[in-house]
Amino acid sequence: MKKHFLLTFLILNSIGILAQNEKLILTENENELWFESLNETEILAEKIELINNRLTNDVNVYIEWSFSDGITVSRFPKLDSIRKIRTKGFCKPLYLVKHKNDLIAFRVENPINSELTDSITELITENNIRKLEIWTNDNRQALYGTSADCGVIMLELKKRKVFKAFKKLNLTNWKYDEISSYK
């Protein structure tokens, strides 16, 4: 019995230690610092690694709203003002994936399927990205409304087949997330 208890304790303890290694970005200030580090990095491979880590770490954040009448919702896509009040500065960037004149815009919200995030990060590689732009405090953010308040990451793709792979992920209609398509 003591061996089972000790083994369970060690497993749970190691899981806690591994979880603490992940840096979650929750506030607007942390988001701004993250974008600063992304801007300071000049090597494309390092930028891609930062973006993929951010996507993966954002999966670990889940916010649920409870109202005084007992109703609880985990998705409230149309009322950005309520979201801003309830989440107190919680920030996730808007992602733009572009090939020539085609564009997919999405923002990954919670709860998110880690398999979907893995599929996205597999497509964001140095071999697939021609150009990476970062918009913070940029007038172009106005095109995407409040969804771009926490910054925009524009990924210009090299190959049409990679853009088609993004389209196949159906990011704009995924049933659990507020991932919107902007025209």
Notes on the protein architecture:
The chain is α+β, with helices and mostly antiparallel strands and 183 residues long. It has one domain. It is 40% helix and 15% strand. The protein contains 6 helices and 6 strands, in the order αααββαββαββα. Strands 4-3-6-5 form a 4-stranded mixed beta sheet, covered by helices on one side. Strand 1 and strand 2 form a beta hairpin. Helix 3 packs antiparallel against helix 5. It is globular, with a radius of gyration of 18 Å. The C terminus is likely disordered.
Termini Cα gap: 61 Å
Helix/strand structural class: alpha+beta
Share in β-strands: 15-25%
Helix content: 40-55%
Unreliable parts = 14-21, 72-89, 173-183
Shape: globular
Domain count, please report it.
Answer: 1
- Main sheet makeup: 4 strands, mixed
Number of strands: 6
SSE pattern: HHHEEHEEHEEH
Give the radius of gyration: 18 Å
Report the total helices. Answer: 6
Give the overall pLDDT as a whole number: 74
Fold blueprint:
Elements: H1 2-20, H2 28-40, H3 44-58, E1 65-66, E2 72-73, H4 80-87, E3 94-99, E4 102-106, H5 114-123, E5 129-135, E6 152-157, H6 160-168
Parallel strand pairs: 3-6
Antiparallel strand pairs: 1-2, 3-4, 5-6
Helix pairs in contact: 3-5
